[in-house]
Amino acid sequence: MDPQRCLHNLSAVVSRHPHDPEPVPPIVDVALARFKIAADTAIVGPLDSRPDLLQMDPYAFKRLVHELSEAMSYENLADPELA
User: Fold this and answer.
1) Whole-number pLDDT of residue 82
2) Helix/strand/coil for 80
3) Contact, 14 vs 7, CB < 8 A?
């Protein structure tokens, strides 16, 4: 398999030099006009029930990651302290 031919068949854009990135058009074009933007973020804050990971207690974050790894069947990430 020839890598250059493979990239050509995939219509890939490759920079000539690794330090000169080529711009890539977005895959999904989001129409922002479809969404309502709230001026005050405090209004929409209570609507989001997800935990704020940056404000989370480190031990609670560790438990969350452990539960996520179990749910995704990553037994090798299991922590004996949390069992």
Assistant:
1) 55
2) coil
3) yes
